[in-house]
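PROTEIN DATA CARD
Card holder: Arginine--tRNA ligase
Chain length: 581
Origin: Rhodobacter lacus
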Amino acid sequence: MNIFADIRRAVVAALEEMGAEGALPAGLDLSNVAVEPPRDAAHGDMATNAAMVLAKPAGQNPRALAEALVARLAADPRIAEATVAGPGFINLRLVPGVWTEVLRAALDAGRAFGRSDLGAGVKVNVEYVSANPTGPMHVGHTRGAVFGDALASLLDFAGYDVTREYYINDGGAQVDVLARSAYERYREANGLEPEIREGLYPGDYLIPVGEALKAKYGAELIDKPEAAWLAEVRDFATEAMMAMIREDLALLNVKMDVFYSEKSLYGTGQIEAALQRLEDLGLIYEGVLEPPKGKLPEDWEEREQTLFKSTQYGDDVDRPVKKSDGAWTYFAPDIAYHWTKIARGFDHLIDVFGADHGGYVKRMKAAVAALSENKVSLDIKLIQLVKLFKNGEPFKMSKRAGTFVTLRDVVEQAGADVTRFHMLTRKNDAPLDFDFDKVLEQSKDNPVFYVQYAHARVASVLRKAVELGLDVSDAALARADLAQNSHEAETALAKKIAEWPRLVEIAARANEPHRVAFFLYEIASDLHALWHRGNEEPRLRFVQEDDLALTSAKIALARACAVVISAGLGILGVTPAEEMR
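Structure generated from the sequence above:
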């Protein structure tokens, strides 16, 4: 039950009636008509901008149009009062019975409350993490993994057909560096001094890989030329790194549907096919790029390359796909990879990139638009940096990793649930501070604690009610006399519960799962506020031992709140707490 969507349908129906009767021009675009909570709760329960957005195209005075619309809305039995404010805004106040029906809907649906058919089964590919298979995942990957996973869950909750995908960057020069680094650890396992020269990966995490290579090959590869062992060691080490990455993801409860190998694009004709697609569209040509703006690099020279006309699709400059020596650029396999997504039938693509990939956004969007002839959309989400603190100081790097703090370091310190929730307390494009002391403290200033505490409080109330002999199943609570929850604080909580289905759709449309975390903090605050008012006004307490019928009604309200918190935490990938320890 989405009461905001229901009331919007009533507004639209009234406008359509006015159009049919000639009070409004026929065929007006009603897509921008919104029904939302007013900025000031004193103005009512909802507000609509209908008259403001339609006045100009209708050629009418906005206030006069609002008054005509109000006269029709007043006949809706759910609307207690409809008034015009200012130049033509309409404020609506609903009858109390609406909020009791919202509570019943939440109890009947359980964690499915708020699920939407907004996505209508549209196929969405969410590609996230996609870390190079050259070592353990670091804290930046952690934020990207949490964001991408929560976004995929949010879209699924909103009715999209979602595929979670990891692109294994195993086709570039970095995996050759991995192979050389692993070979030095292989030499070390054979009793030789490793030569971890500049440019190789120094972390201790490659020591077990070297030992595994020794177990497989013995001393067979020692003193052989690189050409004799590079390919085998590269495949062996890459596989070992991907096993480590899968373990890291499992620590965060992240599970991928697809792991797609970049290497599989080479030698299979797929890169050639994607570029041929662009050539058939007249978007590939041989040319010379203009020199970069500003100071020229010392090695700059004009040279003819194979270029993609990405400027035709909003990019700043055309982009090379093949170098003058005939080798593919880094962009070429990425084009081919996204061409496979289009070929697999996805309607919408989402890429989650690190902040350092900002310069890649326009060219990638241009490629997808061109390849699909604007039929498939691409949204790229950039993940800003995470700064780690502990005891008031920056958290030190991992010795095991060699150069950075790993995902495993973070999860072992804070736990998966805390890590996931806190990584979503800022919008993805805003920097995030992760202070181990603050994310573990038990206070209102710690969002994850505050939300979990709200859910645990409801669980404790339910346990108390069971001791009194009450049936606290959702079905039984839905049959309680919910009209008894008539205090303004109780009504405020019911109204917040009613906002949940609307919030889901807003967050899904914007691809912004952090909105869920924010909303959970707000609804937890309302629950805690009602709890504390019960300390001052005993009749607001959830358990009324002298009136079990009233207790059932009040517990139904608390349970409906917990239903929303549980559903929201489920989207974020966090397990709801039954008790705090």
